[in-house]
Amino acid sequence: MPDLWSALCLVAVLEGLFLLVSPGLWKRLALQLLNLPEAQIRQAGGLVLVIGLTLLWWLRH
Predict the structure, then answer these.
(1) What distance in Å separates the CA atoms of residue 38 and residue 44, rounded to the nearest whole number?
(2) C-alpha span between 9 and 23 (Å, rounded)
(3) Which long-range contacts (C-beta less than 8 Å, at least 24 apart) are formed by 22-25?
(4) Is 34 exposed, middle or buried, given 0-12, 13-18 or 19+ CB atoms closer than 10 A?
(5) Whole-angstrom Cα distance, residue 13 to residue 6?
(6) Which residues, including other chains, have CB under 8 Å from residue 33's CB and lie 6 or more apart?
(7) DSSP state of 9
(8) What's the pLDDT tens digit per position in 10-43?
(9) How far is it between the farthest Cα atoms of the chain?
(10) pTM here?
(11) 2, 31, 36 from 10: Cα distances, Å
């Protein structure tokens, strides 16, 4: 459980870093997401999820 909290905190740090360093780019990317079909966003999310889980498994074993 502590690893889960650590991972969530790291996500918050990375998201905050992106917003701090380049808020304009983040806003443009968010606007582009609004124009994408939900199915495409869902596929991208699934791909990122699988990559993340694969990398996590690889790092832990």
Answers:
(1) 10
(2) 20
(3) none
(4) exposed
(5) 10
(6) 41
(7) H
(8) 999 999 999 999 999 999 999 999 999 999 999 9
(9) 39
(10) 0.70
(11) 12, 25, 27
